[in-house]
């Protein structure tokens, strides 16, 4: 019998058992912009059973060139992104549970927002809350997938506490970014590609396909195009003060 998930269940290592596992999973999506909206849409279509959608912002017209989940009525009404995302995703897959949280992720509410999660998608647009997330995930032993995008480039990184270096290991001395969206903009296709890669790694994690996971940081540039995976190297650095790696 053909179902909405038949084509993905035919993939090697997926099947009805994998689909049932997705249906029982909870994923927290932090940030619902160009990355988070598209990644959440892909996970909803794949049948992830519960999506907790977290973003304090409202939809604006300038979002629409890259934020695929929203439309002009959302922008004209300045709809809260969390609620607008949940509404659109419910129209895509009414079988899943959607939790809309119009909140900013920070130290004071982070533990509550992550409660019960199997996985977190980092679609945030600022460094500081990402390092707060890193500390929570290390403490809770919670896997997460980081993605970032600016101009025509981005990166994806799978982080599994106890098994991989944490975000602080990768960025031990984070300084001012060379590129910023305020100055350098964001290419719509770049956001969509990075979101797809992020959702892809999330599905592997949820299905237990450790053998297929990205092991380094995937850096993608689209203008001109290049794909490069960077392997972690500690060099002469001291052990990480967050995870001890």
List keywords for this structure.
245 residues, alpha/beta, Rossmann fold, 8-stranded mixed β-sheet, 10 helices, 36% helix, 18% strand, globular
How are the elements arranged and paired?
Layout: H1 6-9, H2 15-23, E1 26-30, H3 34-46, E2 50-54, H4 72-76, H5 81-92, E3 97-101, H6 110-114, E4 119-122, H7 127-140, E5 144-150, E6 153-159, H8 167-170, H9 181-184, H10 188-206, E7 217-222, E8 225-230
Parallel strand pairs: 1-2, 1-4, 2-3, 4-5
Antiparallel strand pairs: 5-6, 6-7, 7-8
CATH architecture annotation? 3-Layer(aba) Sandwich
* Helical content (DSSP H or I, runs of 4+): 25-40%
Structural shape: globular
Main beta sheet strand tally, sense and closure = 8 strands, mixed
Count of distinct structural domains: 1
Just give the CATH class: Alpha Beta
How much is the radius of gyration in Å? 17 Å
Question: What would the average pLDDT be, to the nearest integer?
Answer: 96
CATH homolog superfamily: NAD(P)-binding Rossmann-like Domain
Descriptive account of the structure:
The chain is an alpha/beta fold and 245 residues long. It has a single domain (6-230), classed as Rossmann fold (3-Layer(aba) Sandwich). 36% of the residues lie in helices and 18% in strands. The chain has ten helices and eight strands. The protein has helices at residues 6-9, 15-23, 34-46, 72-76, 81-92, 110-114, 127-140, 167-170, 181-184, 188-206; strands at 26-30, 50-54, 97-101, 119-122, 144-150, 153-159, 217-222, 225-230. Strands 3-2-1-4-5-6-7-8 form an eight-stranded mixed β-sheet, sandwiched between helices. α3 (34-46) crosses α10. The longest helix is centred in the last third of the chain and has 19 residues, at 188-206. The protein is globular, with a radius of gyration of 17 Å. The N and C termini lie far apart (48 Å).
């Amino acid at each position: 019998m053909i179902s909405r998930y038949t084509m993905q269940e035919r993939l090697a290592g997926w099947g009805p058992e994998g689909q049932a596992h997705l249906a029982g999973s909870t994923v927290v999506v932090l940030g619902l912009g160009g990355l988070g909206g598209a990644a959440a849409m892909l996970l909803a279509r794949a049948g992830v059973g519960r999506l907790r959608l977290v973003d304090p912002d409202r939809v604006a017209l300038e979002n629409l060139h890259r934020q695929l989940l929203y439309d002009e009525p959302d922008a004209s009404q300045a709809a809260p992104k969390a609620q607008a995302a949940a509404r659109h995703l419910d129209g895509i897959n009414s079988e899943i549970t959607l939790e809309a949280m119009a909140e900013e992720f920070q130290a004071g509410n982070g533990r509550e927002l992550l409660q019960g999660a199997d996985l977190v998608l980092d679609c945030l647009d600022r460094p500081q809350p990402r390092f707060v997330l890193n500390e929570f995930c290390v403490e809770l032993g919670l896997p997460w997938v980081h993605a970032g995008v600016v101009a025509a480039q981005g990166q994806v990184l799978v982080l599994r506490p106890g098994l991989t270096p944490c975000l602080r290991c990768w960025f031990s001395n984070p300084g001012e970014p060379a590129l910023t969206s305020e100055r350098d903009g964001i290419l719509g296709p770049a956001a969509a590609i990075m979101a797809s890669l992020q959702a892809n790694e999330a599905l592997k994690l949820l299905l237990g396909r450790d053998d297929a996971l990205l092991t380094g940081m995937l850096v993608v540039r689209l203008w001109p195009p290049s794909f490069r995976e960077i392997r972690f190297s500690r060099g002469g650095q001291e052990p990480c003060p967050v995870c001890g790696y």
